[in-house]
């Protein structure tokens, strides 16, 4: 059988990459097993991993065949150290979430728009996360005595506000919370100019884009003036017109967003025209 690895044929004439001979297959298995065992050894012998890698790199001068393997182990070790450092930083920053949850030295109240209880927060952190919040807190109203020590975010209900604050304090949010509140959080991120949250919500919407939520994503991207997200959603809708347009959801969407409906129609005609030209 011709092999895509050891064949003597020119590269362009070789068989597909998944076609290999028995000898190359066994060789690949051996390398994977050896690499896995070495990586496990490096991770389980933290006191001697530097010696292990140094020894391999030193031996490469007399045996070049193991140079690549030594470099690979060194790279794995560096990646492992970077991962551990990132985890330590996240654990360190989690103290902010504790301060929010336990109301440690809070100095401002954030009130949602559904007459739910206010949530205590910290002026300094809000100001650091958003220039809009900073301007609000610098205004005369928020510099007044404690009786006026409240900010109302009328567009958010209690759960949405709680998620917004949790993200501002931690830089992350549980998957189920993101899925439930991604649209309201995206609008809040745009209104209060929180770029990291905007990108976070955009990635979530792109990752979960399907025929049942494409219209919602298009509407949110238009509201937030997110050009790249809007273009992606619009293209997705055009590619899946039959599954999206002939639904009750589209009827309600068209009544609420006539300008977006026009854009969908135009994009669909352009797509049809381009496909005809390529035939």
Automatic annotation (TrEMBL):
One Pfam family it belongs to = BTB
Q: Which PROSITE patterns match?
A: BTB
Lineage, top-rank taxon, reads: Eukaryota
Instruction: Extract the PANTHER family matched here.
Output: BTB/POZ DOMAIN CONTAINING PROTEIN, EXPRESSED-RELATED, BTB_POZ DOMAIN CONTAINING PROTEIN, EXPRESSED
Q: In which pathway does it act?
A: Protein modification; protein ubiquitination
State the protein's purpose.
Answer: May act as a substrate-specific adapter of an E3 ubiquitin-protein ligase complex (CUL3-RBX1-BTB) which mediates the ubiquitination and subsequent proteasomal degradation of target proteins.
Checking InterPro entries in the record gives: At1g01640-like (IPR044784), BTB/POZ_dom (IPR000210), SKP1/BTB/POZ_sf (IPR011333)
Domain BTB: start-end pairs: 106-177
This protein's name? BTB domain-containing protein
């Amino acid at each position: 059988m011709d092999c895509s690895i050891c064949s003597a044929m020119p590269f362009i004439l070789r068989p597909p990459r998944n076609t290999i001979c028995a000898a190359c297959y066994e060789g690949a298995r051996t390398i994977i097993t050896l690499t896995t065992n070495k990586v496990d050894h490096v991770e389980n012998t933290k006191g001697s991993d530097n010696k292990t890698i140094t020894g391999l790199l030193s031996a490469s001068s007399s045996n070049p065949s193991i140079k690549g393997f030594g470099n690979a182990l060194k790279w794995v070790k560096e990646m492992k150290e970077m991962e551990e450092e990132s985890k330590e930083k996240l654990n360190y920053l989690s103290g902010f979430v504790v301060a929010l949850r336990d109301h440690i030295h809070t100095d401002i109240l954030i009130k949602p728009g559904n007459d739910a209880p206010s949530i205590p927060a910290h002026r300094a952190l809000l100001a650091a996360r958003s220039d809009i919040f900073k301007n609000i807190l610098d205004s005369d109203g928020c510099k007044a005595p404690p009786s006026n020590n409240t900010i109302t975010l009328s567009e958010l209900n209690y759960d949405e506000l709680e998620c917004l604050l949790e993200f501002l304090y931690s830089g992350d949010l549980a998957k189920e919370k993101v899925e439930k509140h991604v649209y309201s959080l995206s609008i809040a991120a745009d209104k209060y100019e929180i770029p990291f949250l905007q990108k976070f919500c955009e990635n979530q919407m792109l990752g979960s884009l399907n025929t049942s939520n494409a219209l919602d994503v298009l509407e949110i991207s238009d509201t937030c003036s997110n050009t790249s997200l809007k273009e992606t959603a619009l293209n997705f809708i055009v590619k899946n017109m039959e599954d999206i347009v002939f639904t009750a959801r589209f009827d309600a969407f068209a009544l609420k967003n006539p300008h977006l409906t026009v854009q969908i129609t135009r994009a669909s005609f352009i797509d049809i025209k381009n496909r005809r030209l390529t035939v």
